Queue: 2 jobs
Job 1
Amino acid sequence: MADLTTEFLGIKSPNPFWLASAPPTDKEYNVRRAFEAGWGGVVWKTLGSEGPPVVNVNGPRYGAIYGADRRLLGLNNIELITDRPLQTNLEEITRVKKDYPDRALIVSLMVPCDEESWKAILPLVEETGADGIELNFGCPHGMAERGMGSAVGQVPEYITMVTEWCKKYYSKPVIVKLTPNITDIRNPARAAFQGNADAVSLINTINSITSVDLDLMAPQPTIDGKGTHGGYCGPAVKPIALNMVAEIARDPQTHGKPISAIGGITTWRDAAEFMVMGAGNVQVCTAAMTYGFKVVQEMISGLSQWMDDKGYTSTSDFIGQAVPNVTDWQYLNLNYVTKAKIDQDACIKCGRCYAACEDTSHQAIWMKPGRVFEVNDAECVACNLCVDVCPVESCISMVELQAGEMDERTGKVVEAEYANWTTHPNNPAALKAAE
Amino acid sequence: MANSQTTSGIVAGRLPADRIAKNFGDLHPAYQPHEAAVAADRCYFCHDAPCMTACPTSIDIPLFIRQIATGTPEAAAKTIFEQNILGGMCARVCPTETLCEEACVRETAEGKPVEIGRLQRYATDTLMARNAHPFTRAASTGKKVAVVGAGPSGLACAHRLAMLGHDVVIFEARPKAGGLNEFGIAAYKAPNHFAEREVAWLMQIGGITMEEGKALGRDITLAGLKADYDAVFLSIGLGGVNALRAEGEDKDGVRDAVDFIADLRQSGDLTGLPVGRDVVVIGGGMTAVDAAVQSKLLGAENVTIAYRRGQESMSASRYEQDLAAQNGVRLMFNLRPVAVHGNGSAAEIELEYTTTEGGKLTGTGETIRLKADQVFKAIGQTLTDAPEGIAIEGGKIAVTGAGRTSVAGVWAGGDCASGGEDLTVTAVAEGRDAALDIHATLTA
């Protein structure tokens, strides 16, 4: 079994699976249970300034999106930062860290956007012995209206400013948690590193309304007839998070900087995907909230098996390995030609590929007598839609045409050389350059 | 072909070879990966899962199914084997309908449990196909343990002991290891020599020596083992079969169902295995069903199971009863044998109707005769060859805790030991737990 020990910002944890700052890490009881279940680290649910704690609604805090068989795919929440006294949290953090020195314990923070507030809380956090802090610049609901959370994360200058304060008043690693509710994730990431952040973590939740109660005519979750937008998370947001992580990982200004990935990580495979995309570790919340802390056991065994199968002996062997293969559309090889191929033995004759192709794509699948579905290479543009809608895994595959073979659709012989849009004759910019 | 289903007497070759081969194929075909994925997706990953509680070996079922769902059936297999090293066989023979699958919350919700047994088989088959053993031995403890009997309990005990660093010698009375897995269950539940392959795979852990053809009381004695080894585990099974106590029981054609099943399991060519035209099986357990169904599959024309109590009392599960009925076996209830008639060989069996009053079974005096050129006795097995000086309780070796017998340094498990159901999976649990107790004792 591969060794999953992971070092992130010099903080060692027995595996790269941390629990994200969220309800599962709100208090000592939960965090101890998490560590007993095998989690490598936790980011303690966000602490606010000293004084009367925030209050939460007393009605439903969560809304859900389901897939088939009522599988929870997306979760939306309107919960705020911790609603327990600061001192209580600090005492618990101190105790837990003392009892679990081998696990990572990061404290999430969100205080008003002024230097005094940060200067006040940081020494208190330092005293707990926690391994680092994470700045919650992400929560999109409630706190944002008070000038915190995503209200800070959406203004790069504020990010830099607060990060600088934190580096000034706190000696251990500072992670900046980014909001995805922004046009270009690279700007806040650059801003964080400009303020000397040690790492960024992303994504926080996405602004969302999960559903509307059609009798009450109100968004869900509904509080006394009204609803508000909340933060969306869970498996549904993974592709969005993966792209944002990749954007930061391949941005020349932030390339190679530490990233802690968050966003719908549910299985070992999700974790591996984020890590090869540049994340040094991962943070999980919804999977734990859906299945309980025990779910980490599958992540541990799965990642370990994959590493053994691939011959990786350390997580550092594969972190960032896929980053060089993320590129812009214009650099994709236009001479790479594939055609869909349907495995007739595997085909169960449902006809979904036909409906998809005939109605919504390129009329490249024939439906022959006896419900035999075959690809017409002369029409197939290799869009992959048939593969995506086919219920049978590996029934339809995309087969690459070798150089020298004829592409029946274009009537052209496939060329061996790589050629992309930047030099394509149809590209006005390319033509201009050639002239 | 000379013989057919209607040939009288006990003869071989009632069905052509291709029919026999088809009849004795896999009862539940193995899942394809897609089927496994669909089946695994149905698991809710319950907290403190009822299925896990219902499993005598406490396999972490939600975890292994999640590992299948996430594309790591090998990791799933390891989860299974950590608790139950014979998880491959148990996936095939466990009465899941009365264990894990009965407890499944989807059984409660929809009457359709997650198919845990088949998923377990998918996982274990995947890992075993790699022919890699998932465990390694701990450093040698220098201790030696004797295991008597290479059935499920003995194998599970030996494997766990070997894993913990002890050296183990298994003494097996038969010429081949496996116990009831090899000799005692229906062929269609574990075709393609699975029991044999499983033993070979299990032995890959190392540190286990198999001494076949060594019977307790004949070739070895408990006193001798106690002198030569640091601990002894008895897993000798049940060697005897209860008598019918019916007149004419000694006629030709009357035999023990377990012997018939053992012959069948060891037969290289089932077209050469004789079976009656009119077969009557006396009993109500899994052995009765296994003997009856296999008689039918060999080509017997009429096969009847006669059970002395009502259907609700049958120890064979409802699933097993349905399997028998689907194969054309007639199930008759509240009938007990009083006589086997025939001139030297059995020709008919006379059964008396019974009623149960106040829990006591009595005959009504009314009888019925069935044609029977072959009668199988499947009315329970008894402990034989128990070593002298060991306490017996209810006809089995008395054990307390994790298989401790009345004799210090001697443990027992499986069918020969008191307590627990006589199931493969229970035997495995008992063997494993005894091994842990032996380990704790030897390393204390």
Job 2
Amino acid sequence: MSQNLDLRDRLHPHGDDFYELLMAAHDGLEFDQSAALNARLVLILANEVGDINSLTAAIERAAAS
Amino acid sequence: MHYQNRKYPFRTPPELMGEGRGRYPVAIIGAGPIGMAMAIDLALHGIRSVILDDNNMVSVGSRAICWAKRTLEIFDRLGIGDRMLEKGVTWKVGRLFHGKEEVYNFDLLPDDAHKMPAFVNLQQYYVEEYLVDRIADFPDLIDLRWLNKVTGEEITDDGVALHVKTSEGNYWLSADYVLACDGCKSQIRQRMGLAFEGQTFEEHFLITDVEMPEPPFESETPERWFWFKPPFHSGQSALLHKQPDNIYRIDLQLGPDTDPTEEAKPEQVIPRVKQIIGDRDFKIDWVSVYSFTCAMLEKFVHGRIIFVGDSAHVVSPFGARGGNGGIQDVDNLGWKLAAVLKGEAEPALLESYDEERRHGARENIKNSARATNFMTPKSKMEAMFRDAVLNLASDLPFARRLVNSGRLSFPCSLEGFTLQSPHTAPRGLAPGTPCPDAPLEDGWLLNQLGKEFILLTIGARAKALAPSGVKSLHFENSPGVIAQYGDDMIYLIRPDQHIAAAFEAGTDSKAIERALVRATGSLALETAI
């Protein structure tokens, strides 16, 4: 795994809160609408992260699964 | 079944022997774990009660089996903690599977600073049996009446009259307070027409208790195995863990479309069990199919009728918050009701039970609903997120923490509620925190706390005079206590082992007295001091 990926759990102690929010955002959406929501969310979060090395590492890790 | 339920005898109550209508400080409906624990807690405060139960034996089937640390600490205060610890199975190793693959495992190391482990597995019938035995220690304070069914109630100016039906005839008795501990289908709640609504889950779950002489695990150490998408049936999840007497609990999540009666038949159950545990000897001990609701009453205190445990709130079983939540209700209510009945506090103190335990119930419902939602994805996208979390969990710690097969039940903090003083000390534990245990030279701190208000002072500089009616407990050079509570600190501890107020050494005695007035529910008087 790329060394640019932050292995710390940065969501803790709000992981469950985040997951509930995320599921609530998808509640009632058709699958395509959900996919579109995910696309927008990834783009916004990428901008929040900002750092291109971190983003490259994240894309590599996600694609490797 | 491997466990033979003791049958308890019907005894003719005094009301049916011509002694007229009995009057009791407290009448408790239901002799389950909550009702019996309630009677014992009140008896420890010197309060007399009568328990009325329509049945004559302890729980049929293992039912609630996971008892969390805080619950064990409460049961220890009530006098059955050691028996539970001795008989119960303390598991350490947990393994989580996604399909056939093990995603991760963990080892719950015991905390040497605490007498009680994170939790033990023990069948509900043992807990109830221990409570029945403990009740026998209070023959003058607890009147436990089997096969006495409450069928109606009348609320009067100074109490409640209950109508009771028995095989030898019907009678009335009166009580200053009635505690409804009659479970999730509470009949008194239904007769009072109280709304009990919440989220209902469509999934069915199949519980099987299996008796197996040889453990399915690699070693003798008891483990807990949890599967998402188990390879051995079509449902979403499965759980295997050990109870005493070589009984293993298997929970299978069935789809919403399955027929529960069909699924509970031995010809359905036995092949599935074989797929989980392989080719070894076993006997089916108990099978139950259930679905569940997360719901709570809008108010737990209705004048002189108070709801405790499942009659007040129900949760899904994930995270073991049903029985554990109910025992915390008992812990919270016992000392308050005793203080009101002894005239040491105004009835308004009971409103704090409502405030604090509704908060606890909301937290339990939130956590168990989250676990249920994680385990039962409602849409294709939810299922994809769930699978993505499991996929990343093998090497990314944040994803591991998102995996939710039930969050361990921790007691909630009561910080910010009416009885607790504001958090002003810059260090130490915050008011509202349940007291953590600590090792002493000759025992455990929690065994020294409870029953009455205690002023806990730590360190040579912290010597303070306890207000009248408050017991003093002082420690110096006690590393176990200092590690948990800090040095040169002063705490006012409630009879239910929660911190009501925290001060640094050197605080003036007026502040401690104010905190005590507040903690006994007399906030209106506080300004007078």
